[in-house]
Input
Amino acid sequence: MRCFQSIQCISLGSEKSGEYLGIGRHPRDKSLQIVAANESTNSQQIYFATDKRGTRTAKLNAEAGT
Output
């Protein structure tokens, strides 16, 4: 994502388990954010800020799962 500025997001998920993981650029400041949803999050999409290495640094918000 750092090397290819034109890519807005990458994600993958499992239809069977409902797990979801993605990384995307915030529309305003272009910072990278990780989003994750799985059984442990009760299928809520949890958004995390990242540092320069792509490591989760802070929980930003949560959205109800579908």
In short: The first strand starts at residue 9 and ends at 13.
